[in-house]
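Case study 2.
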Amino acid sequence: MFKIGEFSRLSRVSVRMLRHYDQLGLLTPSQTDSFTGYRYYSADQLPRLNRIIALRDLGFSLEQIAEMLDEDVSAEQLLGMLKLKRADVEQQMQTEQERLSRLEAQIKQMNQAANHTKYDVILRDIESELVGTYREVAKDDNRIQEMFDLVEIYIAGYENARADKPPFTIYYDDEYRDEEIDCEVCVPLKYAIPENESIRVRKTPKQFKVACVIHVGNYLNIGQAYNALLNWIDSNGYQMKGLIREIYLKYGADGLEFELPQTYLAQESNQYVTELQLAVEKL
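Prediction:
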């Protein structure tokens, strides 16, 4: 028999933890002196103690370990508990991996911001333009891409009608929306073509005093450009006057059965170039 201190040294488990295991009923001393209160442990208790240590290392709580060490728990039930714990650990790993990915993206974004010139906002006038357009309340951004495809396919049916200019989107909502987006996609034309029930042909009005800013990279980070535009308007004593436009100076277009102007096509999303345009007026 070993006193608690001796058993602690040999098992490499602190006296405090041995007492805690005793209080929980996980590992009670083989014998307790009724007069002195000393706890005594035997060598044949080491396998149970080692199992407690191993299960704790696997992430089980002491309450779960008590249930697993219950003599009435079958091997099949114990295996089931281990499998459930494995699934729990796998889910935790996935969650942490996703968090790590978000951290890495944030670090990359901050490094890029530190290494690149800040957004420059300029004021200029925007000329009128002949365009083929399609407007609807789009379900989401993917639907907006489909709307562009519809217009491009329709225009491709008319010989040499597509102008060598970038397409753009006009947003009509009074607030930001990532679903049910009231927007109009516009594709430049060299000449007027017939309309159909969906696609219209019109000239956009000339605009004066338009605040413009360029965003380079994929659309996930375009919010930075919007923030720069907002800060510039506020800092320079302007207010919004018109609708927001996104002009796609470099963009991706895969899967179409005809060629688009190569001047504006990009192979990778980090090569995209988008100009934000917003008419403003002095306060």
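Residues 75-115 form the longest helix (41 residues).
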